[in-house]
Amino acid sequence: MKKVLLIGADGMLGGELRERLEKKYEVIGTTLETLDICDKNAVLAKAKEVAPYFIINCAAYTNVDGCEVNYDLANRVNGEAVENIAQAAKENDATFIHISTDYVFDGKLDVEKAYTEDMSANPVSAYGKTKYLGEQNAAKAEKYYILRTAWLYGLGGKNFVKTMLRVSNNESVSVVDDQHGSPTCTTTLCEIIEAIMEKEPEYGIYHSTNEGFTTWCGFTRKIYELAGIKTPVIALTSKEYKDAHPESSDRPTNSKLSKEKLHQAGIFPAKWEDALQEYLKEELK
Ligand SMILES: NC(=O)c1ccc[n+]([C@@H]2O[C@H](COP(=O)([O-])OP(=O)(O)OC[C@H]3O[C@@H](n4cnc5c(N)ncnc54)[C@H](OP(=O)(O)O)[C@@H]3O)[C@@H](O)[C@H]2O)c1
Fold first, then answer.
1. Does the Cβ of 11 fall within 6 Å of ligand 1?
2. Atom 32 of ligand 1 has which residue's CA nearest to it?
3. C-beta of 12 in contact with ligand 1 (< 6 A)
4. Which residues contact 170 (CB under 8 A, 6 or more apart)?
5. Closest protein CA for atom 42 of ligand 1
6. Does any ligand 1 atom lie closer than 6 A to the CB of residue 8?
7. Does 170 map to a domain?
8. In ligand 1, which atom is closest to the CA atom of 148?
9. Domain membership flag for residue 248
10. pTM surpassing 0.85?
């Protein structure tokens, strides 16, 4: 059985991934309590002790607005610490799988188009900047996959779907309708990660989201439709949202990630609506 060092094994993605991988791999999971990725010596020692075939990093500072005010900490976790893991992978001849984000792009691409992996990153938010540094550091591992995901939700964490279900008792719900992307279920991202581990395609960056695109407003309407909720959903512009929440970080207008490269590797993620339907079956049980 191949060994996997799974870092961030109790996060929303990491928790689900751990459960799934344990059926096929010998998984050694770490959490912030057992391994702080900012502690270089600890990261190198853990990797040496485990001697893994794969190292997967699901740990991150994921509070997008929090990154604006806690930039130094976010940069250490999302950016600098990734170099520790890349070095650990290199020293142990392990393959490094690192999770990144659509926020590495500025989102200014024509919304009719989707970003491909070879397009230049130009992060605008603090979160995007720190994650982009993380990508550059992940690429220092000789064998690496950087999987950029977006709009992630899963059973094991706070997420947009849960928030929309919670606020559905309100008279109406107002949601931004001019930011475009792919809602992505952790289950689909786990399937993509497992396929990458099985197929081991060419190393590099892979856009890794559910198939298809919508807006946050479209996403909310679908959540309510599938959950049988009748609460009216009112479309807002990003400007209207920002005026009401001036402390919020700017979000990219276009977060559409092309899955062409993933398809070429023989990996075909589920459509976002189908993944959402499956998720809601569990969430609403
Ligand atoms: N959520 C999204 O919408 C989204 C979108 C695009 C990309 N992503 C990326 O997807 C990946 C997984 O996200 P997620 O939503 O599953 O994140 P999550 O639930 O916030 O999990 C991240 C985990 O990392 C841990 N952690 C934080 N600092 C650490 C450190 N210094 N050392 C070790 N562990 C540390 C956290 O511990 P504590 O909870 O104890 O702090 C948490 O368990 C991340 O790389 C994220 O950037 C997420």
1. yes
2. 36
3. yes
4. 231
5. 11
6. yes
7. no
8. 7
9. no
10. yes
CATH number for the domain that contains residue 116: 3.40.50.720
Q: Predicted confidence band at 250 (pLDDT cuts at 50, 70, 90)?
A: confident
Note the pLDDT tens digit of each residue in 86-142. Answer: 999 999 999 999 999 999 999 999 999 999 999 999 999 999 999 999 999 999 999
Q: Whose CA is nearest to atom 37 of ligand 1?
A: 32
**The two structure tokens encoding residue 248:** 């919020």
The answer as to whether 10 is a domain residue is yes
Residue nearest to atom 10 of ligand 1 (CA): 99
Q: Which domain holds residue 69?
A: 3-157+183-211+257-270
Residue 27 forms part of a structural domain: yes
pLDDT, tens digit (0-9, with 9 covering 90-100), for 150-196: 999 999 999 999 999 999 999 999 999 999 999 999 999 999 999 99
In the chain, the number of structural domains is 1
- Residue 147: which residues within 8 A CB-CB, separation 6 or more? 97, 98, 99, 100, 189, 192, 193, 196, 205, 206, 207, 208
Annotated active-site residue 115? The verdict is no
Q: Is the pLDDT score of 248 beyond 90?
A: no
CA 54 / ligand 1 centre spacing (Å)? 19
Q: What is the largest CA-CA distance in the chain?
A: 57
Candidates 115, 127, 241, 279; catalytic one = 127
Mode of pairing for the β-strands spanning 214-215 and 180-181:
antiparallel
Judge contact between 53 and 4, C-beta under 8 A. Answer: yes
